[in-house]
Design brief:
The protein is of the alpha/beta class. It has eight helices and seven strands; from the N terminus they run βαββαβαβαβααααβ. About 40% of the residues lie in helices and about 15% in strands. Strand 4, helix 3 and strand 5 form a beta-alpha-beta unit. The radius of gyration is 18 Å and the shape is globular.
Length: about 260
């Protein structure tokens, strides 16, 4: 299927690894040009049709700088993918989670997307565009104090998406969320990721810790974690003009983690 993304100008945040890198590659495979932002960009150097931009997306000006680079280089922006984010397990519970912890989570998981969206919409007005936010099932599924700040930030992002869909729809700008469950990235499997953090806290190996965490939240119907490429496929579909009447929606991809309607 031709997703009609050839020559579209796309901005991807948090593009250097995991889900962001998979999204960047998937967009390029569809013929798009990508301005890819991250703190470190070695992994995206040399990818055809990708302009790597080293930027601190957690800073107030970073997201707007990335969007402006796309406009300066290509004259417009057609697609924004707000992927940058992060989670730190709060094993001491609510009382052990400080204001600074919440501020960190809100900044990287909510404000970075808010600022990039504000900048992109400024240039999308008049010709339309698509915005896809990478949220999380933590925004609404089985909230717990271990991810209380992360879940709150992602819930804010999902709420913002719904609100903006109403305001931006008449201008031809659509905005949607993708909410992954557990994904086989560094966030779960890397150094200081969920598996290693829980392993250290409970005295087991990381593989056992991963299995224990997944079992504790209900398990995955498919028996495996989602891959970054599977997330990227869904994101690219939502970025495509083929889904032009989809906006304000949240698409869950979680391997059957959520058991309710």
């Amino acid at each position: 299927m031709d997703l009609e993304l050839e020559h579209k100008v796309c901005v991807v945040t948090g593009a250097s690894k995991g889900i962001g890198l998979a999204i960047t590659r998937a967009l390029v495979d569809e013929g798009a040009v990508v301005v890819a932002g991250a703190r470190t960009i070695d992994s995206i150097r040399g990818i055809e049709a990708v302009t790597p931009v080293a930027v601190d997306l957690g800073s107030r000006d970073g997201p707007a700088q990335l969007v402006k680079r796309a406009v300066n280089d290509h004259g417009r922006i057609d697609v924004l993918v707000n992927n940058v984010g992060g989670v730190r397990l709060r094993l001491k519970g609510f009382l052990g989670t400080s204001d600074e912890d919440f501020e960190w989570a809100m900044n990287i998981n909510f404000f970075a997307a808010l600022r990039a969206t504000r900048a992109a919409v400024t240039y999308m007005m008049g010709h339309g565009g698509a915005i896809v936010n990478v949220a999380s099932v933590n925004a609404f599924f089985q909230p717990d104090t271990g991810t209380v700040d992360y879940g709150a930030a992602k819930a804010a992002l999902v709420n913002l998406t719904k609100a903006l869909s109403q305001e931006l729809g008449p201008h031809g700008i659509r905005i949607s969320d993708v909410s992954p469950g557990p994904v086989s990235t560094d966030l779960w499997l890397g150094k200081d990721g969920v598996a290693q953090t829980v392993a250290k806290a409970t005295g087991v190996d990381p593989e056992t810790a991963k299995k224990n965490v997944l079992a504790s939240i209900g398990g995955l119907a498919t028996g495996r974690m989602t891959t970054p490429d599977e997330i990227a496929t869904l994101v690219v579909m939502l970025a495509s003009p083929k889904t032009a009447n989809v906006t304000g929606s949240n698409y869950v991809i979680d391997g059957g983690l959520i058991k309710t309607l």
